[in-house]
Amino acid sequence: MSRRTSGFLAADQGYALVSMLIVVVILGAIAAIALTSSPGPTTPGTAAAGSPTTTTTPQSIAGVVAPAQLSACEADFTSLETAIGTYRALNGGSPAPGTGWATSTANGGPFVEAWPSGAPNFSITWNGSQLSVLPKKGTASHGSYGSSSPATGCFAA
Fold this sequence. Notes:
Layout: H1 2-37, E1 60-61, E2 64-65, H2 67-91, H3 100-103, E3 122-126, E4 131-135, E5 141-142
């Protein structure tokens, strides 16, 4: 009786192994078909044959400021606010209007490595008493980096 039982176990194991091999072959065939029928990767500005492509500018989409631009504007404003606060703490008063005080080695500086410039949609100015964000389009904000409603400063860029 024990011989007969072990014979059935060996047959069952062989059947399981053959079933598993069949499943692996079927999955391999499906994967091969899927890989050969895909159009392949496309690069920005191109598409698979017959597909139209559209390009959106990263600056703004449908009048909404791109998140990276907004973050950069807020970070620039905050670093300049910190620089002004440090200047006041060291010198007992506000820095002169303009940008020269921030990068100068005089009066405890430089307070920033470089004044933020070259941003595509905004500039930040210091008039001697107030830091302002001037967007290329929209409403400026004075004393803050702006607000989302109504869109001012960084949010209006």
